[in-house]
Amino acid sequence: MSTQTKANIPDVTLNDGKIMPQLGFGVWQVEGDDIVPSVKTALEAGYRSLDTAAAYGNQPGVGQAIRESGVPREEIFLTTKLWSDKHGDAMAGIQESLDQMQEEFLDLYLVHWPRPKQGLYVEAWKGLIACRDAGKTRSIGVSNYTQRHLTEIIEATGVTPAVNQIELHPYFQQREMRAFHADHSIITESWSPLGQGGEVLRDPVITTIAEAHGKTPAQVVLRWHMDLGLVTIPKSVTPERIRENLDVFDFKLSPDDLKKIEGLDRGQRLGGDPATADW
Ligand code: NAD
After folding, report:
1. Is the pLDDT reported for residue 1 higher than 50?
2. What pLDDT, on the 0 to 100 scale, is given for residue 3?
3. For the CA atoms of 66, 68, 70, 71, what is the dihedral angle to 10 degrees?
4. What is the dihedral of CA 152, 158, 159, 161, to 10 degrees?
5. With a 6 A CB cut-off, is 23 part of the ligand 1 pocket?
6. Partner residues linked to 11 by β-bridges
7. pLDDT tens-digit profile of 101-145?
8. Of the residues 111, 196, 270, which should be mutated to test ligand 1's pocket, given the most ligand atoms within 8 Å of the CB?
9. Ligand 1 centre and the CA of 169: distance in Å?
10. 193 CA → ligand 1 middle, Å
C-alpha cells in the first residue's frame, strides 16, 4: 500500500542534538533506470532516510526522486559521502554532491573511507567540520573509521563524529567497535545489514526465528539491528522487499532469539578492511 506518510520508524538522537531515523534506505549499486523508481517507492512506503555517496554515481537520480516524490524535503534525512579523491577538498566534494542532487543542504555528510595510505583522513575530517560550519550539512560523521582513526580525528579537532557507518550484520557483529562508539557517544550505523542478501538470510538460526514470528529472515535481521539500537539502511530494488524491510515494528525478538543471533558472529567481513583498504 502506498501511504506517502512517514512510517512508524523510531528516531535516534545524535551527539549534536539532531534527530536521525533508525531505519533508512541504502542505494549502493542501485543504478541506471532503477534509481528513481526505487527511491520513490521507498519514500512512498514511508522511508524518510536515504543513504547515497558520491562514489555510487546515482546522486542525480536520488535528487530527482526526492523532487518527484512530493515528500517535503524537511521530512527527509539525506546522507551522502565524500570520496577519497577529495579528502583534501571536502568543500568541493559536498558542493558537487549538492549540485548533482539539486539540494541546498545535507542532513549528514560522511567521509566514506579513511584510506590510510593516502594519509588525508584527518584533513578530510577538518573539511567536514568546515562544511558543517558553512551550513552545507547539519551533521557530520565518518564511515569505515577504525578506533585508531577515530581517536586521531577527535584528538586533532575536538569534534567527535555523530555517526560511524561500518559493516555490521549477524556474521560480523563488531562488538568492540560498538562498545568504543558507545563510550564516545558515536552512533553505530550498519552497512550491508542483511549481509548483502547472502548466506546470513539462509542461516537456519535466522530462518527458524523468522518462521516462529511469521516474518521473513530479512525482517528478523533488521529487527535485530533495531533491538541493538543501531541505525541501518538496507537496500533493495524490488518494491515488495523495499516495503518488507520497513515492516519490522510489529513484532519483538525474545531474549532467547537475541542470544541465538549473537552466537552467529564469525568475524566474517564481506567488504574491505578499513585499516588497509586503499580506495
Ligand atoms: P544489504 O545488506 O542491504 O543487502 C542488499 C541485498 O540484499 C539486495 O541487493 C538483495 O539482494 C537482498 N535483499 C534486500 N532485501 C531483501 C529481502 N527483504 N529479502 C531477501 N533479500 C533481500 O547490502 P548493501 O546494499 O551492501 O548495504 C546497504 C547499504 O549500506 C548500501 O546500499 C549503502 O547505502 C550502504 N553501504 C555503505 C558502505 C560504506 O562503505 N559506507 C558499504 C556498503 C554499503
Report:
1. no
2. 46
3. -10
4. 30
5. no
6. 21
7. 999 999 999 999 999 999 999 999 999 999 999 999 999 999 999
8. 196
9. 11
10. 6
